[in-house]
Amino acid sequence: MEITAGNINALSTRINLAFNRRLSVVDPTWSKFAMEIPSSTSANFFPRLAELPGIREWLGPRQIHMLSTADRMVLANRDFEETIGVSRNDLEDDQYGFLMPVVESLGDDARVLPDKLVYETLAKGRASKCMDGQNFFDTDHETIGSNGKTTSYANISTIAAGEAAQPWWYLFDTSRPLRPMIFQPRRAFAITARTQLTSENVFNHRRFEWGTDGRCAAGYGFYQFAFTSNRPLSADAFQAAVATMGSQCRRDGSPYGVSPTLMVVPKNLEGAARQLLKSTLVPVKAPDGTSYVTGTNVWADYCDLLVSDRLPQAVAA
């Protein structure tokens, strides 16, 4: 290819089209359990909010539930980039057939970055602080019991006696506007060219460059709507998790109504998860208590299933 301003501009136009096309093709999954909260500054501040008490009969003056940033979580935006270079000699010698697939890969990487950040943040939830100042998955969050009094709440369960640890699996209540995880976009990813013949990279290094960059972050939303466990993925473990999530109450003692609508598991738990949530018939103990017969699966289609290759498959400690 003859290196002229017109030819380079035409190539950059093709590169932009290839990059933007992939932005709309790749299908991320973070939005199934995370809420998008746009940012317009270097960081967003999230007030601590234990719960919304719900609509009450209006007797006497209004009861104001203040949202204060005095006791807050800060989610700072992060900068991300990916840049490629092609030598001038390769362009002149028409040795750049690889360029468009590489550019499309840049678009893929930009589109799935929210997935990468949200799942990485989720996997660190047992050792990372959330809105109440405790680890997102913890054994002693503060909640309200059915008697209307403050009590300890665990949104994590670990293996019982005699059980072998499994990879961590997750349950989410995604039926509400407030969700367990946050994706925070600040500046969308776009591709920028450094291709002027007088640019330092071209003039001194005979190299044309194209790069993408953006700003965003991922963080924790409402722990009340999330649960994790490393117990074997069985009907007993699932029932215990559902009951625990449903035990949370409002300040007046009425049930909050939390119930999982989505299970998220790593790839190596896909079979167990599908048997639990998708099979209509399962082995159940016979009346003799030792043998098994075929019975109805009471948990079939109880909630949606998402199998993610971004979750760790390692056996949980």
Structural description of this entry:
The protein is an alpha+beta fold and 317 residues long. 23% of the residues lie in helices and 28% in strands. The strands form 5 sheets. It has a 5-stranded mixed beta sheet with strand order 7-11-8-12-15, with helices on one face. It has a 4-stranded mixed beta sheet with strand order 1-9-10-4. Helix 1 packs parallel to helix 3 (99-123). The longest helix is centred in the middle third of the chain and has 25 residues, at 99-123. It is globular and about 80 Å long.
Q: Would you spell out the secondary-structure blueprint of this structure?
A:
Blueprint: H1 5-23, E1 34-36, E2 43-47, E3 72-76, E4 78-87, H2 88-92, H3 99-123, E5 141-144, E6 150-153, E7 156-157, E8 169-172, E9 181-194, H4 200-203, E10 207-220, E11 226-229, H5 235-246, E12 262-266, H6 270-277, E13 281-285, E14 292-296, E15 304-308
Parallel strand pairs: 1-9, 7-11, 12-15
Antiparallel strand pairs: 2-3, 4-10, 5-6, 8-11, 8-12, 9-10, 13-14
Helix pairs in contact: 1-3
Summary of the model, kept short:
The chain is α+β, with helices and mostly antiparallel strands and 317 residues long. It has 6 helices and 15 strands.
